[in-house]
Design goal:
One of its GO terms (molecular function) is transcription coregulator activity. The chain is an alpha+beta fold and 233 residues long. The chain has 2 domains: 119 residues, Roll (Nuclear Transport Factor 2, Chain: A), CATH 3.10.450.580; 83 residues. Helix content is 46%, strand content 15%. It contains 8 helices and 4 strands; from the N terminus they run αααααββββααα. A 4-stranded antiparallel sheet has the order 1-2-3-4. It is elongated and about 80 Å long.
Amino acid sequence: MAATSLPLPNTGGGGNPNFEGNPAAVAAAAAMPPAPGTDMTGICFRDQLWLNTYPLDRNLVFDYFALSPFYDRTCNNEQLRLRSIHPLDAAQLSTMTGNEYMLSEVMEPHLFVIRKQKRDGPEKVTPLLTYYILDGSIYQAPQLCNVFAARIGRAIYHISKAFTTAASKLEKTGYVDADNESPSLEPKTGKETIDFKEVVRVDHILAQLQRKVQNMSVIYFLQQSRLVGWRYE
């Protein structure tokens, strides 16, 4: 889903079509970085005017990324830009501490992967978030815990639904067998009694498994409070 983009204020004289007529939103985007922990995976940023003017390559991709609402102006890269140093200069960034962005994967001109990380020393960094630029559109990659939560939740739902359907069909089969028992045919009655006992046994096993799956669902949702603060590393 594409949301309204929040570029930085224009300094070159040309207005940005994403925010014409809304200077307050532009000023707010420029003054404040995204709040820590803000989920921005539902936002897509694209500045077609910029893309029509400049080539999207490894030398200019960071300037393009800096226009997006994903960019934190308090990062070390911004300090390098103010000193007229390339913002992705690894030698300079390694001497600083704090939040920074680095270009981790490049497939010019279609795909660029940018990682936000916290640097505590020349060789000590902690990954925080990942962004990718796909054919000029910028997205925030979902955190790994959110991907696991969605996949596990979907799997538990389908497994629980399958157990419910299977148990319902087995109960119906057992009910029909019990009604169709014929006292006049002893061999057939004996066979049907054995089959019904087997159905009841399997039904009992399925019911136990279903309860376990439901308990897993409860435990899973209770654990989400601990997963929310987890970050992809």
